[in-house]
Design goal:
- Keywords: ATP-binding, Nucleotide-binding, Transport.
- This protein has helices at about 55-60, 85-95, 110-120, 130-135, 150-160, 180-195; strands at about 10-20, 25-35, 40-45, 70-75, 75, 95, 170, 200-205, 215-220, 225-230.
- By secondary structure, it is of the alpha/beta class.
- The strands form two sheets. It has a six-stranded mixed β-sheet with strand order 6-7-8-3-9-10, sandwiched between helices. The chain has a four-stranded antiparallel β-sheet with strand order 2-1-4-5, covered by helices on one side.
- The longest helix is centred in the C-terminal third of the chain and has 16 residues, at about 180-195.
- The radius of gyration is 17 Å and the shape is globular.
- The mean pLDDT is about 95.
- Bound molecules: adenosine-5'-triphosphate.
Length: about 240
């Protein structure tokens, strides 16, 4: 992986609201969320199903626009931006890791990462083998996703997310489809990524994972219910569930 840089990827949300549906069926998936993430911070978001965790991640990553409120991510003010601006923001600033990896099945591990470099025009294609080496996949680079284990696929997806050198990494249940040992290796990578200076926001149902965070945010009914500081975040190797 690349060497540590100055902390980056800070986030500031004020009164951020996101609604879905119309009329009586309308619901606020986010309801006046205030939240700060410091540059270089690792934040874990917990909360029951439907509490707005994924919506928060999607709004932060510019996948969906907020309806109300102020939102600055990695130095970019997102309030009122056009869909085209949000695409540029995502391309330049954010990396995404999903529960079910979202790799292109017809491309090898290497090609999946290279495709991200090609599509975004960011990063360096010649660095892709090194990047895959940094997630321990040197001997699997030319395998297709179906020939890789879940943990290996998730490591490819982390390499893909890092290929554009994002300021902020957004991970939605990154260990949700993995067994404990494999999940821990993924957590270690996310923690290492964070230690290089970029902010990481991880959504999870797994409360054990919260011990590696600098801060733990709990959501309920579209609102931030609690924010707790971890005085001494745990090393990912010590986490179990
Ligand atoms: N595209 C959508 N259209 C309509 N309603 C949506 C949409 N996306 C999310 N919602 C609703 O918004 C609320 C928050 O959903 P969200 O996916 O953010 O919750 P979550 O905390 O991530 O849940 P889970 O832990 O089950 O993934 C839920 O009531 C959900 O049904």
């Amino acid at each position: 992986m690349t060497e540590a840089k100055a902390p980056r990827g800070g986030v500031r949300l004020r009164g951020v609201t996101k609604r879905y549906g119309q009329g009586e069926a309308q619901l606020k998936a986010l309801d006046g969320v205030d939240l700060d993430i410091e540059p270089g911070e690792l934040v874990v978001v917990l909360g029951p199903s439907g509490s707005g965790k994924t919506t928060l991640l999607n709004v932060l990553g510019g996948i969906e626009p907020a309806d109300e409120g102020e939102l600055t991510v990695a130095g970019v003010e997102l309030t009122g931006r056009s869909p085209k601006d949000l695409v540029s923001f995502r391309r330049d600033r954010v990396g995404f890791v999903f529960q079910f990896f979202n790799l292109v099945p017809t491309l090898t591990a290497r090609e999946n990462v290279e495709a991200m470099v090609e599509l975004t025009g960011r990063g360096d294609r010649t660095q892709v083998p090194e990047l895959l080496g940094s997630v321990n996949l040197t001997d699997r680079m030319d395998h297709f996703p179906a020939q890789l284990s879940g943990g290996q696929q998730q490591r490819v997806s982390i390499a893909r997310a890092l290929a554009t050198d994002p300021d902020l990494l957004l991970a939605d249940e990154p260990t949700g489809a993995l067994d404990v040992a494999t999940g821990k290796s993924v957590l270690r990578l996310l923690q290492e990524t964070n230690r290089q200076g970029r902010s990481v926001l991880m959504v999870t149902h797994n409360a054990s994972v919260a011990s590696i965070a600098h801060r733990v945010v709990t959501m309920r009914d579209g609102k931030v219910e609690t924010v707790e500081q971890n005085a001494a975040p745990a090393d990912a190797v010590t986490v179990s569930w």
